Amino acid sequence: MTILTYIVWDMNPDITTIPFLGIPLRWYGVLFALGFMLGQFIMSFIYRREGKPSGDVDSLTIYVIVATLLGARLGHVLFYDPAYYFANPSKIFATWEGGLASHGAGIGLFIGLYLFARKTKVPYLWILDRVAIITCLAGCLIRLGNLTNSEMVGIPTDLPWAFIFPLVDNVPRHPAQLYEAIYCFMLFVFLFWMWYKRRDQLKNGFLFAWFLIILFSLRFIDEFFKINQVEFEDQMILNMGQLLSIPLVLTGIIILIVIRTKKEKVATLHGDAA
Questions:
Q1: For residue range 24-78, what is the model confidence (pLDDT) as tens digits?
Q2: Statement: residue 265 has pLDDT above 50
Q3: Which value, in Å, is the radius of gyration of the alpha carbons in the chain?
């Protein structure tokens, strides 16, 4: 096949430069922020639908933003390049230079939501079920942001839907970012539909468990189509993203087993956490 057969992705990552500051406004940042905005809108709908004070969503959004950003950055620091950052501590929070880990974001989110659940007196698994829905949508938008940056590119392929990223090289590659964006969006639709149609029949933790199982199983598979993010992964049978996905899938399976053995029938707001 000739180069004309493939999709040439030469999108400029920058939208414009912010006046007086000289800082570029990037598509990635806009899509990242859009994920939080849409998440807040959907959570407000969920809270109103379930008769919970929608004012709590503002507090929830703050918890989610802080926990996600801190977790994502510290996850990148600890999982992917600890030696560099321990030698250069001033770079740990230099997020404008890049470096956010989705698994770290997940861990940070678990902690932040636990604190939020204790503060608002809602079952922990209840809030995890609802936030799992919007997390999928945010994940979709973030991976589209990675696509606009021509980062996290896939391995070479000759498939007709291969992307060529001129900012990287002229090799046709799997659009691995797009794969992940697509299955994140499909999982968002599935979980939202399950909540909308069957929330009164589901035990607390059911949606969250399937979120972990489906998302990170697909993430494990998707990693086979990506180039490694850091050099040390080249010596590994499974890369860091895959190793971090395995315990999350197992956690989802354990949650399913546990909630199926409990007597709780309905995921009520004021019921015991499953």
A1: 788 988 998 999 899 999 999 999 999 888 889 989 989 888 888 888 888 777 7
A2: no
A3: 20
Residue with tokens 């590119």: 153
The first and second tokens of residue 207, run together, are 């949606």
Residue among 140, 137, 74 at smallest CA distance from 107:
74
What residues contact 19, with CB distance under 8 A and at least 6 apart? none
What per-residue string of b and e applies to 166-175 under the rule 16 or more CB within 10 Å gives b? eeeeeebbbb
Pair 42, 197: CB distance under 8 Å = no
How many C-alpha atoms does 17 have within 13 Å on its Cβ side?
5
Sign of the alpha-carbon torsion through 59, 60, 61, 67: positive
Residue 136: partners with Cβ closer than 8 Å, 6 or more residues away:
184, 185, 187, 188, 191, 211, 215
Is 163 in a helix, a strand, or coil? strand
Contact (CB, 8 A) for 241 and 93: no
Please name which of 124, 108, 101 lies closest in space to residue 63, comparing C-alpha atoms: 108
Return the amino acid letter for 120: T
Average pLDDT over residues 3-22: 82
pLDDT at 188: 98
Tell me which residue of 103, 136, 141, 105 sits closest to 27, measured CA to CA. Answer: 141
Query: CA triplet 167, 150, 92: central angle to 5 degrees?
Result: 105
Other C-beta atoms lying within 10 Å of the C-beta of residue 34:
16
**Lookup: tokens for 53:** 């004070």
